[in-house]
Amino acid sequence: MKQQIEKRLGRLRQAMKRHGVNACLVETADFHQSEYVGTYFKSREYLSGFTGSAGTLVVTEQEARLWTDGRYFVQAAGELEGTEIRLMRSGQEGVPGVLEYLEEAMEEGSCLGFDGRTVSAAWGELARRRLQKKKIRFAGELDLAGEVWEDRPALSARPAWVLDTAYAGVSAEEKLKSLRRQMKEEGASVHLLISLDDIAWLLNLRGDDVKNNPVALAYLMVWEDQAKLFINPDILKGKTASGADPCRETAEEYIRGLGIEICPYNDFYEAAGQLQGEVILLEKEKVNDALWSRVAGNNRILDRMNPTSAAKAVKNPVEVENLRKAHLKDGVAVTRFIYWLKHEGVRNGTDEIEAAQKLEEFRKEQEGYLGPSFDTISAYGSNAAMCHYSAKEGSCALLKPEGFYLVDSGGQYYEGTTDITRTIVLGPLTHEQKKHFTLVLVSMLRLAASRFLYGCRGLTLDYAAREPLWNYGLDFNHGTGHGVGYLLNVHERPNRICFRVKDSLKENAVLEEGMVTSDEPGLYIEGSHGIRTENLILCRKDEKNAFGQFMRFEYLTWVPIDLEGIDTQFMTERDRQLLNEYHRQVYEKISPCLPPEEQKWLKDATAAV
């Protein structure tokens, strides 16, 4: 593999030379600024060998560097080892950012090449401003990676289907009306939307073009009295299950029934270039540089967060009730998996991949299960110290009757999306391991038990989770929580829980009733062990009094936490009460769905501490 990477970089440099490019930037994103992308778009992975979901590769005539975040430091170091690519650990002291590096490395008057469809408009604007002092030229319409990619996979074209309002809660007609009202309030004549989950939510349309993310490759233009959907029309032809009953119409007939014109996917940029004199509502950070360059000069731009992003984050009452059902199903599957793992899995010499496959079998037994919501992280021992570890055939670890096994997984159900992490004790632990396990547990419990005044953001609440770890000089290098979609992307903005301020408060919104957020503190000791405990929590209104509207969280996830990992000396009386109440409800909700021997085990597994 290392030799292949060197050959690919060599071919890339030859292509750069042909086009007069001195530095080539390759992003992770697809044409829609998606977090996870289809195989057609994995140019950065093809050129570097790094398989993580986030990273930026820069190749110059002399060197190559790859930037990624703390989730992937250990993984990236291993996957890049033996290649010329230097790992740049984003956010670490002394590590320059991508633009800072380009400012230093590029010579005056040289040329930066990239595919503008995969780079955000906001980044493109910032790059031009930062690099103009060195008179850097931009070649933003070059897919150089695609030019040298041998046997590149085809662009996905999987069938799309309609999500029934019995699951969506609100019809697409009503969602479009609401969007148009917001456009009118903003004074916009047209709205351009390219983010796949926003389009899927707005139209109640689901697809299969991105692994584990039920979205279809599409662009959308919405005016007051018309709309155009740019999509491969072939994926709309079939009659597909709606989630409630078989559709009486094809997805194509459904879309046309909404008053939407269906246009070829690849015609979008030409159509965008024809917009003249419009007042365009779009979000610069969520459209790409190629689109921005076509519309910015000839129209007035209203740069706002996509209205659909805020709307879909607040689950409606139908979605909330469905989510409770989905998590009960998922809770049964994961609880049965833990029982199997402790009673059979370890004794039978199971490896990480086989364990993940067994968990998938339990989920497939649940009615309405559609597939994983992301690739399962199945990590034993020191592998769990890589918080986004991916087990590989032929090199994954065998589970042994000692230490920790971490599994981070989720499912897509008609009733919604789940995401859960459990760290499971397989055998004897050290004092330090028990201490770490307990502190992570306490962190999760305290965040979930938070009461707060309306107006708080996750930026404020993050301290509730980190304080137990910070007291011991410990921390974890990822956010504490992210929003979760409804039968959509497992990572959804704008709600998040993290003490680090991102680019804007759009990415750290006020917590509203109906928002679903993960609660997932962790601790990772390189070369030894990794621990994460994750539940999904639903934001709810609590009491309202003279001080204002108070808010609280409701658990959606119901799966036992391994009592064998707990050292109660690191818990207060309140911590113990929080755990005992959680476990009381786990047993109450999950045990009726288990066979007798598993019920008995669950009774012991949820005993009060």
From TrEMBL:
Keyword hit for Repeat: no
GO MF annotations in UniProt: metal ion binding; metalloaminopeptidase activity
A Pfam short name: Creatinase_N_2
Every Peptidase M24 domain range: 321-540
CDD domains referenced in this protein's UniProt entry, alphabetically: APP
Family: Belongs to the peptidase M24B family.
PANTHER family, per the entry: XAA-PRO AMINOPEPTIDASE 1
Protein name as catalogued: Aminopeptidase P family protein
